[in-house]
């Protein structure tokens, strides 16, 4: 298992190989080092030694890094000389590479405790700030992170309930969390470390490492996702070279989620990171970032689980528009494209997002999309789901939006007026009726003449509606007849010029 | 109107319709594309309609999906196969849109068209299209391209073939996992068209890359590729190249990949052949049966029989049987259930002795499993064991368990036993049945007939009685008629239950009884009951009776319906509950085709007209729907005559 994971981290493979080959000659010095160590420090810990030796003999062979003298991992940092701290650090890390099955708390409980203790010591040691991360230390650290963190999640627990609405399900808690938490803690400390040699660090925190880390965002455990969020954010901040790669990989996760599986637990967390990433984009926005907005963020409105991450998604979208106002109309177009047809809860979210966006939209941008937008709004005003209808009415209370509407009332009023009339005639909900009345009152105050014109037009349209439907039916009937005639002609004449028979058929119908 | 005088421009009609803001209208017009094409004629379809469609790709996904589908069958409208290439450009655009189902449909349509196109057209038009898509800037185009290679490859000239293979290789290493997944999915189809020498060199190296992909989603698709490629390769190559991959996959660190191996195991075994299976895949399979992840064990357990069939009995007994024993006490009920559903099939494989010695204890323990699904799965396959160990032994060892289950606390299990009695009876032979099971069945029947409380309880439990009736027909008609008389009274009980599905089943039962015993019997036994219940104070029962009437009417025929049933329905239309009233409308609608025209005119329509003025909106809706359908019946007769007349005019 460990080997397999390591093989995914290409840069470290040769190293672990060389450590394997140097195993035999270093094992001598190991035991020597041990003895030397003990006599040096004195008898206080000799009692520990017996217990410890058994463990160390298991741990040591695979754990040696070439050229570093190994030290018993169970010693305490304060008990060794400064020169040996480095080796102790590495041997402690190697001890922590053993992964236990934590679902059964009784199994290996002493070893599990020892590992946890060691992990905590490591965290303390690193947080003291006096550590110097050498190349072998970083390699050992990253190896320890990889073996402990990078795992494949078990299948989702089979539930008998149909559907798969993840919203109201209990979150799953990883039984190994008591170890994982400390490992994450250590990873965060490591990345945050002030005097970290970035050149060496980035050779180990490489693309493969980041990819594995991103895979973990699918964890069912919210605590884990929270840790990952902080860590990825720091990595993004600190490792400038990896930024494009992280952006690309996160996009891939989003594409897969939207276009293939619609299942991922960590979209909200990833978007939260991106919210702050986007706010840091330099102006003018690069094409790559705009593509992320159009091809990843906007399609994220489509999955039915959008509710889980909608808040974060809205934040990201708003950040984009905040950067560049000219994006507003394309964003609204996207929202209209993914506008929910049957899911009223989603529709409510869309309307609130729309309101947030419209508040930042300039007149020019607004005019680009107002026709399709208010066609949609007319449906929302009419919605038989009273919350949707209510929410759509409340948009008009927003001062900025009302201003936009007022300035373009010649276009907008005809689009929504019939919806208001219909509501007044037949909406079942009293609150909606009141809101409709308010808006109509407001519109009359705004432009009485226009309202009257709209009223007239609706009356005309209503009387003309059946005529239009009839016209459509006749047209298609004529087409059908023309098609049939063309078919008959071409088969009898043998596929000659079809144009003429079409016309004649038209005439015969017309007469 | 002026418009009628205007000449008809089919394209203009389409353009106009596609501008409409109502998506339903846009969809309708796309669905009638063929009409427009026929009206235009082939040439203008090619020159005007198709180019217009190529540009009209900014619509809702639903409209685009419809368009992609329509274009797939458009060859006749553009002038046949020799003009098929004009259909490629609009579909090419649709291959690049965002929405997955539109893209998939476009690829499907392209494949359908490509399969009919002439070779030279494929070379001239289709191959460039595939290349363009494969080099597409956005991943959607590249994803689509993967599904098209197998269409063009066989027709391509040698140089181009080399190029196509190279392009596919690149797609398998694409930057985007989405593209790699698509390439992995389609690899089998493409490989089937590639010549043997290239298969071994080019395709296998591509495949090996995919099997080592760092995304498990790609690797698990490659598992399917194993089976597909294995069938194409020579046996020795398959053993050399595919077998190690399968063995590796069976130890993959991702349970999804291992699950896929377990799931595809039989196909994989078929691909590598029986000998390597015995030598190499047995350990792999045993590992899967003992996997840590229950999902993997479920998939593996389901293949126990199929896999054992490939092996010889000794190997199966030596390696597989111990695992089966373990699985029969697995901690996951789903694993046990999967095992129970196939384990009976192992009996013929292992032979009589091993079955008696080793399998029977497992059967028995599964028969007593706490989880009902497990027990049911065993019961449903008893016949397979019978064939191996013979009836005597079966009855000795399993019948006690079956009898015990017949008194199971869980009513579904009892139901299942009763359901399987006829099956057992036919499998085990009438003699055996009368001997061993007959008494048991009689006992059940007695229980029900003698104790009314029990009857109603059994009715609650669904359709046991129906099974019993079915069963008794195995014995004698005499007995069954007696039961059925009692039965209609138990149906009554069933009607008064609160679970819809049971009332529904009861109504259906009545119908089937009427079918079996004819209208006379029904008049005698059913109709009085129905007459009685139609005035029941509980509206749900009244509603069930309405449903029963609509089911009975076609069976009983026009006369009884109009004389006995229709008055009841008409009466019910005066009910105070709107739900009854709109159900009356629905029932009346269903009666229209059964009764005479005059009855429709004189009783049904007046009643419907009245209902269509009901204060309740739903009643009005269903009444007007029923009225419409009654008019349609009239109309269809009229239009038939009108169209005949119209034809004469020409």
Automatic annotation (TrEMBL), chain A:
It is found in: Cytoplasm. Keywords: Cytoplasm. Its main location: cytoplasm. It comes from the Eukaryota. Residues 14-23 have a biased composition (Basic and acidic residues). The B regulatory subunit might modulate substrate selectivity and catalytic activity, and also might direct the localization of the catalytic enzyme to a particular subcellular compartment. Belongs to the phosphatase 2A regulatory subunit B56 family. This is Serine/threonine protein phosphatase 2A regulatory subunit. It comes from Sphenostylis stenocarpa.
UniProtKB/TrEMBL annotation, chain B:
Residues 277-351 form the Phosphatase PP2A regulatory subunit A/Splicing factor 3B subunit 1-like HEAT repeat domain. One of its GO terms (molecular function) is protein phosphatase regulator activity. Gene3D superfamilies: Leucine-rich Repeat Variant (1.25.10.10). InterPro entries: ARM-like, ARM-type_fold, HEAT, HEAT_type_2, PP2A/SF3B1-like_HEAT, PP2A_Regulatory_Subunit_A. GO terms for cellular component: cytosol; nucleus; protein phosphatase type 2A complex. Keywords: Repeat. HEAT repeats lie at residues 10-48, 87-125, 164-202, 203-241, 242-280, 281-319, 320-358, 359-397, 398-436, 526-564, 565-603, 604-642. Belongs to the phosphatase 2A regulatory subunit A family. This is Phosphatase PP2A regulatory subunit A/Splicing factor 3B subunit 1-like HEAT repeat domain-containing protein. It comes from Sphenostylis stenocarpa.
